[in-house]
Design brief:
elongated; 88 residues; mainly alpha
Length: 88
């Protein structure tokens, strides 16, 4: 897949080993905080949807009905906490 970027955090021991090796330590860890935030938001959304059995197992065979199941699950999630709390 061309143009795809990794947004995973580097492990602490990997960072320490690179620093220990000095200039021969290889490339520095690449991390973009904004992409990580977006990725985290998307993953949380999918995890909340997967809590609904019909969504997780794709119980409905027709795409139109499955999309309705996803819509209902999304509405239920939204109604649980309609005001998004900030993490500040």
């Amino acid at each position: 897949m061309r143009g795809a970027f990794s947004v995973f955090l580097g492990k602490e021991d990997q960072k320490a080993n690179r620093l220990k090796r000095g200039s021969a330590g290889g490339r520095p860890p690449n991390f973009d905080a904004e992409w990580y935030k977006e990725r985290n938001t998307v993953e949380r959304c999918f995890n909340k949807l997967r809590q609904f059995r019909a969504v997780a197992t794709r119980f409905d065979k027709r795409e139109r009905i499955y999309q309705g199941t996803i819509d209902v699950a999304s509405i239920k999630i939204w109604l649980r906490d309609p005001v998004r709390r900030s993490r500040t």
